[in-house]
C-alpha cells in the first residue's frame, strides 16, 4: 500500500497539470496575415514565387490551427485595409503571425514593404508609396500574445539599382541610404522575427514553386512538437545547405517560454493520454519524437507499467497464497485419511480378536451342546427325508409334463429351429461327455445353442482364440477353459479366460450333486430328436415375444477331462454353498482352512464382491446346498401348433434388498449371463450393484 500511494499521487498530479495545459491549449486563438506579391505594375519587378509561397504558407498555417487573412498581389490600399483587419484580430489573440513574400527595401535603417502599385522615383516615394514594417509591428503590439514576423523578402530589386544610377547623375541627395537588404528590427519582448537571409543581403526567389526559405519553412512546419526557435534553426540549416552557403537565414527570438507553431501532437496526445495501453503511447512517441508531450507520455507509460507490475505481483501473491492453502488442505486430507486408515486397522484387529474369541467360545460350547446337536441332527435328517420325498414327487410330475412338451416340440423342431435356436437338450450332453463334471446339469446352468456348421478357423490367432472363448461361454467346461488357457496365443484375452475359469469352478464342483439328484429322472425321459428348443416357462400373463436367431457359434473345443483333487472337491463344494448363501464369517473360515490353493483367487474375488455390512445368513448345518436352489431341468414348453415359443420369462422386479440378495445367490449358482444382465437392469437395491457388476464381468470377460 505504501508503494502504490506515491504512484497514485504522482498520477493525480500529472492529471491536474495535463488538464490545466489542455484547458490553456483549447483557449488559444491564433491569427495570421499572409501577403504574397508577384505581379508588380512595373514588369521588371515581376517575381514568380511569392504568390505560390503565400498560398502554400496560408494553407499550412490553417492546417495547424491559425485563422488566416490571405492577400495576393496587394496594392497599397489592399495592404492597408488588411493590415487594419489584422490589427483588430491581434488585440485578444494568443499568437499573431505576419508573413510577407515579395519586394522590400531598406531606407535610412528602416524596412519598407513594396505594394504592387508602388511608384518609387526618389526617397520621398518611400514615405507615401511604400508600407513601413513599423506598421506591421504596431499591429502586432496590440496583442499580448506571441508575435511572429516571417520575411521572405529582400529579393533582387531593380528599383534599388535605378535609384543608385540617379545618384550618379546627381538627381538624388539621400539615395545612399537605400539598400537591397533589410535592417534588423529592434529587440522587443515576446517577439520572433525570421529573416530569409542575413541583414543587408538579398534572398533568392528560387527556381521551383517556392523560394528556398519558404520551401524549408513548409517542410519543417509539418513536423509537430518542434519549438519555434528549433524550427527556424532547422529552416536556416536547410536553406544554407540548399544554396551552398550563399543564403543564410537569421532568426531573432525573445520569448520567455517555449512556443510551438505545429501543435497537432497536442491533438493526438489528447486522444490517447488516458489510454491504458502502453503500445499506443509508444506509437505516439515514435511518431512525435520532438513533441513536448513526449516526457508526459513516457511518464504515463512508466505509471502503466508500474501498475501492471503491481497487479502481476498481487496476482502472483494471490496464486502463491492459494497454492499454500491448497497444500495445507491436501496435508489435512492426508492426515485425515491416515487417521481413518489407523481407525480401520484398529477395527479390523478388534474384529479379528472378537472372531477368535467367538471361535474359542464355540469350540468350548460344542462339547457341552453335543447331545442337543445330535437330537437336532436327527430332526433335521427327518425333515430332509420328507423334503426329498416331496421334491422327488414334484420332480417326477415336472418330468412327465416336460416329456409331454418335448414330444409336441419334436414335431415342430424343423420350423422352430429357423425362428429360435438357443439351447441343446440334455441328450446331446449325454452324447458328448466332454465334461463329466457338468454332465446331467439342467439347462438352468447350461444353455446350448443350436448346432451349426463349423466355421473355418480365422487366420489371426486373436480371432481364433476369441471364437473358441465365445464357444466356451455358450458351452462352459472348466477343463476346456483350462486347456484354452494353456494353449492361448492372444495375450489380450488371457484375463477373460482366467475370469471364465474362476467363475466355472463353483459350478463344476456342484455339478455331481445336482446330477445325482436329477439323473434318475432324466433316464426315464425318452431320447429326444437331435434338435429341440428349450425356452424357460413364462409367467401366465406374460405376452409371447419373438426372438431373433443367434449368429452361428464357433466350433466346439474338445479337451480331456482332468479329475480335481479330493481336497479341491471339498473346498469347491464349500465355496459353492457360500456363493449360494453369502457370509463373511463362512468365507473367512474357508479362506483360513483352504487346502486347494487354485481356489484362492475365486475366494478373494467373492470376498471383494460382498458388501461389508451384509448380515450373516446362517444355513442349517447338514442341509444340502442344492435345497436352497434346487436344480430344475429346463425343457421345452407345450405350445399349440403354428405358434412361436415364448422367450425366457424376465426376472420379477424385487421389492427389497433381502429378496434381491437371494436372487443374486441363485444367479451365482446358475452362471447365466443373460439372467445377470436382466437382473442388473431391474436392480433396485443399489448396495448390491457392485456385486452384480463383478458377477457379470466374470461371466463375460469384462
List the helices and strands and how they pair.
Elements: H1 4-27, E1 30-36, H2 50-63, E2 66-72, H3 76-89, E3 95-101, E4 104-107, E5 110-113, H4 124-129, E6 131-132, H5 133-140, E7 146-152, H6 158-169, E8 178-179, E9 191-195, H7 212-221, H8 228-242, E10 250-254, H9 264-272, H10 278-287, H11 294-368, H12 370-411, H13 413-419, H14 426-431, H15 461-474, H16 478-486, H17 494-523, H18 566-580, H19 584-593, H20 600-609, H21 625-628, H22 657-670, H23 673-681, H24 689-700
Parallel strand pairs: 1-2, 1-3, 3-7, 7-9
Antiparallel strand pairs: 4-5, 4-8, 5-6, 9-10
Helix pairs in contact: 1-11, 2-7, 3-5, 7-8, 10-11, 16-17, 17-18, 17-24, 19-20, 23-24
If you had to describe this structure to a student in words, what would you say it looks like?
The protein is α/β, with parallel strands linked by helices. The chain is built from 24 helices and ten strands. The protein has helices at residues 4-27, 50-63, 76-89, 124-129, 133-140, 158-169, 212-221, 228-242, 264-272, 278-287, 294-368, 370-411, 413-419, 426-431, 461-474, 478-486, 494-523, 566-580, 584-593, 600-609, 625-628, 657-670, 673-681, 689-700; strands spanning 30-36, 66-72, 95-101, 104-107, 110-113, 131-132, 146-152, 178-179, 191-195, 250-254. A six-stranded mixed β-sheet has the order 2-1-3-7-9-10, sandwiched between helices. Strands 6-5-4-8 form a four-stranded antiparallel β-sheet. Helix 16 runs antiparallel to helix 17 (494-523). It is rod-shaped. Mean pLDDT is 74; it is low at 20-25, 167-177, 432-458, 513-563 and 613-655.
Strand order of the largest sheet: 2-1-3-7-9-10
Task: Output the structural class.
Answer: alpha/beta
How far is it from the N-terminal to the C-terminal residue, by CA? 63 Å
Helix content: 40-55%
- Contiguous low-pLDDT stretches (5 residues minimum) are 20-25, 167-177, 432-458, 513-563, 613-655
Supply the number of helical segments: 24
Amount of beta strand: 5-15%
User: Could you describe the largest sheet, including whether it forms a barrel?
Assistant: 6 strands, mixed
Tally of extended strands? Answer: 10
Large-scale geometry: rod-shaped
As a whole number of angstroms, the C-alpha radius of gyration is: 59 Å
Q: Return the average pLDDT rounded to an integer.
A: 74
